[in-house]
Amino acid sequence: MSAPLLVVGIDGLPPTLLQRLIRDGLTPNLTRLAERGSSGVLRSTPNYQSASAWTSLVTGVNPGRHGILHFTNPVRGSYQFTQIDARARLVPSVWRILSDAGARVAALNVPVSFPAEPVEGVMIAGWLCPSPASEGFTHPPELARWLAEQVGDYPIHPDVRRHATAGRYGAVVRAAQRGVETKLEAARRVLARERPDVLCAVVTETDSLQHWCWHLLDDAHPEHDPDLARRWRAELLGVYAALDGALGRLLDEAGEGTDVLVVSDHGQAPNSGGQVLLRPWLVHAGYLVPQARAGLQRAVDGALGAGFEALRRRAGNRVKAWLRARLPALQSRAQAGRRGLAADWPRTRVWTETGHVFVNTRGRWPQGCVEPGAEYEALLAELTDGLLALRDAATGEAAVEAVTRGDEEFTGPEAELMPDLLVHWRSDLRVRRLIAVDGALIERRDPPELPLGAHHPDGTLVACGPRFRALDASVAASIYDVAPTLLHLLGQPAPAYMDGRVMTDLLTTEAAEDVRRVVVNAPTGLGDRATTAGDDEVVRGRLRSLGYIE
């Protein structure tokens, strides 16, 4: 029996951290893969956000084609954002393509894979699944019982935030270590039982740990605490050592002759916190106009927000989904109430969600007031200048590193729902207040508790095996390249609609031969686009725990 193709996802792992782990001798298995093969940077999606990035990794296309921007997505024809799951994806996963071609696949814990697809093989749904008892956790459904018999309780997401913010770093380590070891042991047992042609297993505990402990792992972090780092760094890095040990057991099960790709969806950097000041700046600059509401109206909005928050905690998912479907305007008002701001849309030219900038263009949004063409272009230039002029109040330094245009980053049928401008904040500052170009002080009276680590566009790539070359120099590839490369290695052509390419520069001469593309009709949707994850409070709690929503 031929060796399977292995894909190991380590969520959020930056190349710099992998280099440190190798240098310190903590990860002998990852070290062996990197030294015998190739390693370097896997560039993330333009917004380097997990939901969009993992979806791009398994589809080979940018978010404008697959339709997933974030864990909450814009709803066409409205100003609402709604929680998503895999049913929001508009193009097939590589697992679906391979299954249809007769290959046997195992896809385990990949974010945005809930509910599990009926693939030829097995699937364990990832991060957006509320619990192992949820319908759609596994395919086939009976796999869930077998999994419980094999590894016991299956930890979908570690409760890192609650422990880290209380200073219980030992509990952080135990939760993260249990998660990575359980998931990779489950992958080993699935591999032994199923012997698929390709197995992909993802661990997300690394991302959770880095979000809340990056100030202890990165000496250059603006809020680095040397004393805490001396106390806890070795134990935190021990999570990666435990991951490496579990990876070694998985590699042993796969056997000699296995081709291995280690990938991460993005990297990690200090969190500047500037994104939470974007809305106050837009209000100050007159781009976002709040509704003129009387005190009683503001009180009602606030009460609605508090009421919906309580409802999310206590009501069942079916009740919440029923209310959302029948009372969308009320829910939108409640969301604004929770933020303390409701926009006057006919007079609002610009707003922000998911940390980036949207322009209220006429014909694109329900109450658009910015004309396409010259007015739109002038506004983008003005916004870019204003954002680049923002200064950190504590240091006087520029707070924004770069501003990029959405229409240069996103293509496809959903590109018009993507941000118009992507704001890339400096990661070497911890921004609590901003100074605008007119000298005004921009701050928030109720800033949320933010993670200390944030995403960085450079993730990790390691490629090793009989069909991969051993290269000394650091390599670079795009996250869009993973899916077409997997298809090629399993003897299948990549659809021409994919934005990525086969990573032939990493393959041996023989393995790089006969790269094929097949022209197929670009998918326009998979099932009911309106179907979403509902409003499951467990999943919303995870989103809050990583700072993805307020």
Short overview:
The chain is an alpha/beta fold. The chain is 37% helix and 16% strand.
Descriptive key words:
550 residues; alpha/beta; three-stranded antiparallel beta sheet; globular
Provide the residue-averaged pLDDT.
90
Portion in beta strands: 15-25%
Helix tally equals 17
- Largest sheet, order of strands side by side? 7-6-5-8-1-9-19-2-20
Shape: globular
Structural class category: alpha/beta
The poorly predicted ranges are 527-532
Report on the structure:
By secondary structure, the chain is α/β, with parallel strands linked by helices. The protein has three domains: 5-271 and 453-545, Alkaline Phosphatase, subunit A, CATH 3.40.720; 272-290 and 343-450, no CATH class; 292-341. Helix content is 37%, strand content 16%. The protein has helices at 15-23, 28-36, 50-59, 63-66, 94-100, 143-151, 160-165, 169-194, 205-217, 226-254, 278-284, 295-314, 317-326, 328-339, 374-388, 482-489, 537-545, and strands at residues 5-10, 38-43, 72-74, 81-83, 105-108, 121-124, 138-139, 198-203, 259-263, 267-270, 350-353, 356-359, 391-392, 400-405, 421-425, 434-435, 441-442, 453-456, 458-464, 475-478, 494-495, 517-518. Helix 8 runs parallel beside helix 10, helix 9 (205-217) packs antiparallel against helix 10 and helix 12 (295-314) crosses helix 14.
